[in-house]
UniProtKB/TrEMBL annotation, chain B:
Heme-copper oxidase subunit III family profile domain segment(s): 1-209
Subcellular location: Cell membrane
Any single biological process term in GO: aerobic electron transport chain
Name of the protein in question: Cytochrome O ubiquinol oxidase
Pfam families: COX3
GO molecular function: cytochrome-c oxidase activity
PROSITE patterns in alphabetical order: COX3
Keyword terms: Cell membrane, Membrane, Transmembrane, Transmembrane helix
Topology in the lipid bilayer: Multi-pass membrane protein
GO CC, alphabetical: plasma membrane
Species of provenance: Acidithiobacillus thiooxidans (Thiobacillus thiooxidans)
Keyword ATP-binding: no
Classification lineage: Bacteria, Pseudomonadati, Pseudomonadota, Acidithiobacillia, Acidithiobacillales
InterPro entries (alphabetical): Cyt_c/ubiquinol_Oxase_su3, Cyt_c_oxidase-like_su3, Cyt_c_oxidase_su3-like_sf, Cyt_c_oxidase_su3_a-hlx
SUPFAM superfamilies linked: Cytochrome c oxidase subunit III-like
Amino acid sequence: MLVDLPGGWSPLLGRLAWSQIPYANPILAPLFVAVVIGAIIILGLITYYGKWTYLWKEWLTTVDHKKLGVMYIIIGLVMLFRGFIDGLMIRTQQVWAVGPHSSGVFGSLHGYLTPFHFGQVYSAHGLIMILLAATPLLVGFMNIIVPIQVGARDMAYPYLNALGLWITAAAAALIMISLFVGDFAHNGWFEYAPIFEMQYSPGVGVDYWMWTLQLLALGTTLGGINILATIIKMRAPGMTWGKLPIFVWASLASNVIALTSFPALQVALALVAADRYLGAHFFTAGMGGNLMLYTNLFWIWGHPEVYFVILPAFGMMSEIFPTFSEKPLFGYMTMVLASMAIAGVSWLVWLHHFFTMGAGPYVNTAFSVATMLVGIPTGVKVFNWAFTMYRGRLTFNAAMLWAIGALFLLLVGGLTGMMLAIPAINYMVHNSVFVVAHFHSMLLVIVYAVFGSVLYWFPKVFGFKLDEFWAKTMFWLFSAGTVLVFVPMYMLGFMGMTRRLEYVFNTAWQPYLDVMELGIVVYTLSVLAFIVLLYVSVRDHAKNRVGADAWGTSRSLEWLTHSPVPFYNFAVLPHVNERDELAWRREHGIDHVRPEHYDDIHMPNNTGVAIIIGALTFVLGFALTWRIWWLCIVALLAIIVLMIIRSFRGDPGYIITGAELQRMEEEAYRREAQIADSHHIHPVSGGVVGNAMAYQRNDSSK
Amino acid sequence: MSSHASTVDPKKAELWDTHHHSHDVISTRTLGYFLYLLSDGMLFATLFAAYGVLSYQHSYFGGPTPAEFVKPWYTFAQTIALFLSVLAYGFGMNALKHKNKSGLINGMLAAFVLGVVFLVLDIHDMSHLYSMGITLASSGGMSAFMVLTQVHATHIFFGLIWILVMIAQVMTKGFTEETVGRLLTLRMFWHLQAVIWVFVYIFVYLWGYIS
């Protein structure tokens, strides 16, 4: 053993011992009981209704990109909830522990969380929100939408797609188990050198953090390769690059970033592992290590990652605005160029996360200018969306409200970002909650775009719309929460409040913290509204069924096929003639033209290998965290052997005959004919600036 | 820009893909693998950056520096072994073009043996350093030296496993779409590792020797 381990180690269990289970913790122990009871109830219900076979055959072994996407989104929403609870805990601690006279419970001098526990909470909050909520949500949407928008039957590599999902699920499981076995990192979600070194962080928290991130990076890289290859290779005939839907362009730009930047993170983490496991000196304070090397390597990934998550959100907004403005997207080509420009510039700005490193005026100026450059393509996008809405026929349904909310937040977050790009200001507010409020505004752009997309694409995936009333209720509650939490946070930042305070020393800040606590309560109400929304929508789903073109004004290929999308996506692949193919077909009254005959198609088989490898990566991550070496070797060997076996067997796939396809298609058309066409939308040209085609609503009841 | 002029006559437009586009599995797979290799290249780029930052005099903290123990002729033998391995693989792929199964397997076997020679030389070198008390725990500079060279060696190790798997697959299955696609991707992988070795040899061994 190259590294001296504090505490015990046994060959069988590594560092794992009973003392690592926090059964005496007044917060975690009841939570653990609740989780166990909840899990027993869920497993019991699945057994009671006899759904295990269904679950295994239809979901756990599936290679269908839509089902994998739905599972990505479920992981994302569950982790969003976990991250939200962490946020609630942070806010409650800060409103409680103000000033020397504030009370303390549960062994804490002030508030209810000890500093060590509070550190774990904010570290987990950051990591979860960015990498386990935002990333799976966006990857899930790209998974579902990109293949249908480019007119493909599946991703380029369906099996690899399943593998990516289950590795991501393994990472989520790893960070969740850190709640109840051992502890999580307490030094912030991006960590610092040298505090993550063994002598300063002797527990397993940093190891949990490291392997969770490593697994996520692996899963995301695999997903990125898949989406890029799908876009390059699987486009329907006639879909030239100039006719690519804008969300696909955004996904392309985003995954170029993912593919190139995640290896930098993997190396940074591997070097941390070398320090902690092998006794290397990459980031140690002595022995020739370099502390800032870690910070640079991390943010060389970290800043491109920010654009990796925001670009798909921009793509989602670019789909929602034209549909509900009943106009084509303004400035398609500039939008494409802006996405690519953002992807390029994302590599030149990492140092603005630590201007205070003191690299000197020339370096700081270069990165300051590069950071401001990002504002140009982003500004182009903002104006394009504004001009898309300008003189359009706007429908203010819930999806549109979320998109507009995202636009407002982008302005707030973007302009404060421009302020922070100036080193002179940055030195003043560095590591203050002003910065925290800024990047929360930006990440909330993603949350808004994601909820807009949930409403927008839900009918495509499940065949019925979500309830408008509760969706709007949720939107307004969420927005009120956003204002109440983050406006005071910006103000506190200017007053000099630094981030990550488990004890707030200045009692003058109490009123602001009270408002923020009120905000997080309103956020909680919006979470409840979301649960009601799901319940009400599923209860009334028979009333809200939709046909292929759920909104009646949407423009791209995914709305050409049935809702819910059949597992083969398109019985006959469409031939693309125009940029907004569906809008063009509707305009000329040919959107209901069916294919004349159906040919045999080839589909991939389901496989259980992906989920087993995913489970093994979880075992590997857990064994590495606890240094159970024999288990590491077993898990790694099992993964390699499984991959080799899978490669020998291959997947011949199966054939759906044309006759069978025709039968399924006719059944789908019959089902669609039963849905009352509530839109009655017919194309009428003119009336919109630029002679764009708009759609008149002809209410036949009048 | 807001209006997109229609150029296709909707009455005559082709709406469905009536032609049979045979899906080119090999080209899709090699493209995906090429994309993966880009990320592998980024991985090495990051490691080289770390090596650059940690190869100052003070990075060695008064301990051994590469100038003290690097033998360029020894690593040049490794270079020759790896390049000959790539060449043998190339001959094997040439046999594939002529559907010559035994030629391909012979080429792959030669590539495997030469790869093993490379790896044995590397392991011998490392154990020699270890016997002199030089490990990755010696200093920050030595950490960067060891991790960069051994990450490359790990790639070679997994490439060798892959070559064995491919020899077995070609022997049992012959030249199918899947095996040929994998032979091509493995070739790309093997070539890239040789290209990266050029950088390792120049920047780590030669530069380390003269500095």
